[in-house]
Specification:
With 84 residues, this protein is of the alpha+beta class. It has one domain: Beta-lactamase Inhibitory Protein, Chain:B, domain 1 (2-Layer Sandwich), CATH 3.30.1450.10. It has three helices and four strands; from the N terminus they run H-H-H-E-E-E-E. Strand 2 and strand 3 form a beta hairpin. It starts with a helix and ends with a strand. 10% of the residues are buried.
Length: 84
């Protein structure tokens, strides 16, 4: 009985603690990458907004933040703070 409860709980804990918002992954982001390529690398953003054809997306985890601006579905500007 406990095994049925413990295994899913352990998997959720492990998956939840594996953030892709890291310095290592941020350094892999390059100008010209598509939105889909970035999502494959660091996961879905917390949110995005669009103004005048520029999409601004943000990824967060434990005080770490990655901001990326996309024009025509391509990375044009990146910034980050608090990455480990």
């Amino acid at each position: 009985m406990y095994k049925r409860i413990m295994l899913p709980a352990l998997l959720l804990l492990l998956l939840g603690g594996c953030s892709k918002v890291t310095k290592e992954n941020y350094d892999k982001i390059e100008s010209g990458m598509s939105y889909d390529e970035v999502v494959k690398l660091i996961g879905k953003p917390e949110g995005c907004s669009e103004t005048l054809g520029i999409s601004s997306c943000q990824w967060k985890n434990d005080g770490a933040v990655i901001d990326i601006k996309f024009i025509s579905d391509q990375v044009t500007f990146t910034s980050a703070k608090g990455l480990k």
